[in-house]
Structure formats: structure tokens, C-alpha cells
Amino acid sequence: MTANDTLYPCPFSRAYGMPAAQAWSLLNIFCVYRLVSAVSFVMLFYMRFGALSLGDHDVELYQFASLGYLAISLFLVALIHLRLLAYGHLAQLLIFTDIVFITLLMHASGGVSSGVGALLAVSIAAASVLIGGLCALVFAALASLAVLAEQLYAMQTHAFDAATLNYSGLLGLSFFAIAVVSMMLATRVEQSALLARQHAATIVRLEELNRYIIQHLQSGILIADEAGAIVLCNHAALALLGGIQHPVSLNDLSPLLQAALKHWRDNPQHDFAIVAVADRDEVQVRFSALQLGGDTLHMLLFEDVALYNQRLQQDKLASLGHLTASIAHEIRNPLSAISHAGQLLAESPALSAQDKRLTDIIQHHCRRVNTIIEDILRLSRRQPSNKQKIALNPWLANYVLEINPLHRQPYGDVFRLRSLNGELNALIDPGHLKQIVDNLCSNALKYGQPDRGTIWIETAKQGDKPVIRVIDNGPGLDAEHKQRLFEPFFTTSHNGTGLGLYISRELAQLNQAELSYADHLDNHGFMLTLVNADRTLIAS
Length: 540
Prior knowledge:
Blueprint (H helix, E strand, L loop, with lengths): L2 H5 L12 H28 L11 H24 L4 H22 L10 H12 L2 H24 L8 H51 L4 E5 L5 E4 L1 H6 L9 H4 L1 H12 L5 E5 L5 E11 L2 E10 H42 L6 H28 L7 E4 H12 L11 E5 L5 E4 L1 H18 L7 E8 L2 E8 L6 H5 L16 H11 L3 E7 L2 E7 L1 E2 L8
Parallel strand pairs: 7-9
Antiparallel strand pairs: 1-2, 1-5, 3-4, 4-5, 6-8, 8-13, 9-10, 10-12, 11-12
Helix pairs in contact: 2-3, 2-4, 3-4, 4-5, 4-6, 5-6, 5-7, 6-7, 11-12, 14-16
């Protein structure tokens, strides 16, 4: 059956928008009613229950009509079951044969007064529901004409009393009334069904949209019932909790998580916990209760502690940047005046050699303070991290090629690269990585005694994380200096600002990396532990 068969069963019908499955279902129901009626006409005639007057006027006509009605009903049942004809043609055939055979049965049973003609009202109502539109009115007119024609024929042959003509007219009017009312009711029902289908489709779309949004949220969401069975779990939660596919219960993901949920249920005021997951970093989880009908569900919101610390680090850098920028601008103005006054004083011809030396000291320290101010301003202009996947060995190879010509020594290249593992991919902002490595290399040049040998930039793997080591030949640091190494403004040099390593560590934390000082074999240096890009879900 095509779509047009359902929407336009006959040329005069009006489309209700009834779905094909529903239309065929109604047609099957009416066909079964037809078959039951035909069987009843045959059985009641031959079994003669009570004082029934079926076939009293014309027995032969009744036998022909009842058996023919049964035969055509069985035939139409087969056509509908096999769908050999279009829906519209089958519906019209059912109604038309109903009008013909019921009229014959009515005449054989004594005309309108037998009551058989009232069954035509059911057929007209069925036409309004199955076909609708003007076509239903056409069938109502045909039924009315059939009843009137039967009555006129009976009057012509003097078979019945002429007083039944009034009954025929009233029956015809009732057919039209039933057709109109049935069409109106069918229209209302179909409109309500269409509206219900539209609402159902809207609900389905909203459910799909909500499911998509939940699954693609950066924060992990998990919903569990009272027994700890998982009802819903998005991709972010699975990634944070170890990537177990299709977990059944909280205990499958983490026994510690199950214990944390139990602790919260016993102590509802403690709705926050930090849980360590095997082979992964810690995650923070917040609990809340959901009341759905008579059921109580528990919603767990997960967030990577590293991402949480990263946001704190960004907020800290932003606050520090605003503060230091304000201070730096306030210092730069009087510093410029001091430097300018020192230059003018140094140009005086009456200045003694001792005073000349004092002006040189003023200029030297003005330049040093200005360098500190520049470092502070660079810190205040720190941009958010734009992490990318970087292949470390090619990136560092290009870096060494660029930096060696800037620090050429008579004995050869200062920096050399070596890799202890194969391909390593890190997740970090390229600009931040360059600034960190610049600071480490500058520190190695200043304190690492490059004249005693090569400064190695080494890549390796520690656990599942890639690391970069800058190894120099310096004497190393004592315990006290190691503790204060990354403090701002701490330096062991008379010319240093003490901000290089501090800024480098801040940048590393901003990228979820870790910068540390380590003794490596007989050498000393710094180690930058990075995020493994191959095992990390990149969050936009």
C-alpha cells in the first residue's frame, strides 16, 4: 500500500492523516464484524431461534442474500489479508457490498419494519471512519436510496404496508446524520492522535538531545539506584573512572566509590569526596539525590582533580597577574625617572671617577629592576593554555637546531638531544613548552658549567608519561636551596630575578604537567613530566 492509498481512499475523501498501520487495523476490525454478521444471518435463519422473522417474506431471496453475503465476506477477508487491492478500493468494496446485501436481506425479511435495515447505520459510520470526506456522504446517500428503492418496490408489488414509507425516510435521514457525526468524531480523534504523535515525536527528540548532551559533557555524570546499580553513565565518567565498558554497578567501577556513596547516604551533609581510581589520578565526586516518582536515585558528578587544579591555577595566575601588573606599572614610572636622572648625572663633565662609578651602579640596578618588571608583566599577560598533541622528539630536534647557533662555543654545540624511548606524544601548549624549555636551558647555561661538557636534553618515559630532562654538569644544589628553588624572587645569582623557574612551574601546572629538580645519575638538572597525549581525552 502506498501513502496515497491511506490518505485518499477515494476521489472525494478528505485526508485525516491516519497512519497506514492504524488504517489497516480498523479495516480488519470492520471486516471481522462483517464476517460475524454474515455468519449470524445464516445461523439464525437455519436454526430458527425464537420468533425471528428473518426471511419470512422471501425465503429464496434470503438464502441467496445470506449465503452470498457470507461468501463475499470470506472473499474480502482473503483480499485484505493478502492486500491484493489498495486500501481505498477494499474499503469502498466493503461498504458497497454491505449496502447491497443488507438491503436484500431487509426486503426478504419484511422490509424496513424487520429492523435489518438499521445495520446499514453501522456501515455508514464505518465509511465515515475508514474513508471519510464526501465519499462517506455518497455512501450515506446510496444507503438512503437503497432503502427508499426497496420500499417503493414493495409498494409497487403490494408486498408491504405503505405506512412504512415514513420509516424509510427517517432511516435515510439517520444515515446522513450518522455519516456527518461520525466524520466529525473521526476528525477530532485523528487530530488528537496526530497531536499525540507530534508530542511523542517531540519528547523522543528531546530525550535524544538530552542523552547526547549528557554523553558529551566534559564533567562525568553517573546515576545509580538504591542498590548501587548503574542507571546512566556518560563517556566522561567512564574515562575518568578507568574506561570500563558497560559497568553494571558502582562496585565494578571502584569499591572506594561505592564506599563513598554509602558514607554520603549515612551522612548527607558530606556530599563531596575525592576518590582515588586504580591506575589513574584522583577524581572528585559530588553526590545528590533525585526523586523520580516513588523511586530515589543518586546522581554522582565527577571531575578530574587535575582539571580542577588547572582552573584554580588559571584563577591564581589571573589574580596574581592583575596585582603584579598594577605594582609593576607603579614602579616603572619612578624607575624611569631615576634612570634618566642617572644618565644626565653621568654626562656631567665635573663628575669625579668615584661619582662616575656610583652612576654606573645606579644604571646597572635600574636595568635589573626593569628586567624584573618585564618578567612580572609577562606573567600578568599569561594566556590560557591551548593544549595540543606534540611529538616531542621532532619538536625538540628542531629546538636544538635553533638554539645551538645562539650559544656557539669553540668546542662545539652546547646542547644535544637524546631519546631513551621511541615516539613520545605530549599534550601541552606549544608556546608554553618553548618558554619552559627556554628557561631551563638558560638556567643550565648560567649554572651548569657548559665548559665541562655537553648539556643534554633528554626524552624518556616515566610510567606512562613522557618526560623531558635538561641535564647539566653543575655542582648541584644543597637541601635548603632545593626547598626554595621554585619560590618567586629566590635566586643564588646576583644578576637573576628569581622568576624564571617560578614562571616555568606555573606554566607546567597550567598544562597539567609537573616541573621538578632531580639528580640524574652523576649529573643534575630539571625534569618536566608531561601529559601523555595518547592516553588522554582532549577536552575542548
